[in-house]
Specification:
four-stranded mixed sheet, two-stranded antiparallel sheet, 6 strands
């Protein structure tokens, strides 16, 4: 199942241009908009896997440390299986499609971009959800323990708070 692809990078004048693949030494560009991932997130919410449905039943209702987890939530140009905004934590439920070299490389790039944006990523296998749900929930709970520090300009990116301008308290 094709959930997400490499993010698009907007040029200075706006619009989207695919990031060049295989550019040696240059860091990938990060596309901050979520416009293209929202319709995909809506479709994925209607077509959750069995493992995602099982995990959702234990994540919903603030059952883990009182934290709210959103399902199939757009983050940057991607759709996270589950995202906790408060803890800056993403939980990905991986099936057999993540076993190929291409998918592993894609996941690695995605993890790098999301981590760079201040998110922590926990990957669990479908089998772990089916056969060892309590250990999976324990891993998620431990991972939600302490949120990484996020620069103020990332936290305060709403227009009401200055539109993402660096903010420092004095």
């Amino acid at each position: 199942m094709e959930r997400d692809r490499a993010p698009l990078s907007p040029p200075a004048s706006g619009g989207g241009v695919p990031a060049k693949a295989g550019t040696e030494g240059a860091p990938p560009r990060i596309r901050l908009g979520e416009r293209n991932s929202r319709p995909l997130a809506k479709r994925l919410r209607r077509k959750m896997t069995d493992a995602e449905t099982i995990l959702l039943s234990r994540l919903r209702g603030r059952q883990i440390k009182g934290l709210k987890f959103r399902r199939q939530h757009p983050v940057l140009a991607y759709v996270a299986d589950f995202a906790c905004i408060e803890a800056r934590l993403i939980v990905e439920v991986d099936g057999a499609t993540h076993a190929t070299d291409a998918e592993r490389a894609h996941d690695e790039r995605r993890n790098w971009l999301l981590t760079r944006a201040g998110w922590r990523i926990v990957r669990v296998q479908n089998n772990d959800v089916y056969k060892n749900l309590e250990a999976t929930l324990d891993l998620i709970q431990r991972s939600a323990g302490c949120a990484p520090s996020v620069p103020d300009f990332v936290r305060d990116a709403s227009p009401a708070s200055g539109g993402g301008k660096p903010h420092r308290e004095e």
